[in-house]
Amino acid sequence: MKIENSLTDETVLAELGKRLARTRLRRNISQAELATEAGVAKTTVERLERGGGIQLESVIRILRALGQLDRLDVVISESLPSPIERLDNRGKERRRARSKQSAEPRRGSWTWSDQEEGG
Question: pTM score > 0.90 for this model?
Fold first, then answer.
């Protein structure tokens, strides 16, 4: 199954759980062995493989124990600024998003000379 935005969170979690279980089984590791190597409880591995939610830190530990942690780099790649952004920012890293401006005109905004303000 391809993971897409149209899928529910539950469906995505179930698919990720199946994939991690298949990876574990290909490596011939039991859930208990994986849990021990990852430093998590066996129930955490069971819950993840069933498609349940677990803490992100536990996911990272399990991925590391399975030798799959480097795959996160593909999922969330490092976002490098474009050359224009580097010039605009003069080497400073962006720290916050701009607020979105509403489509409605602000009070006191200009109007065409043949229009009355507010109408």
Answer: no
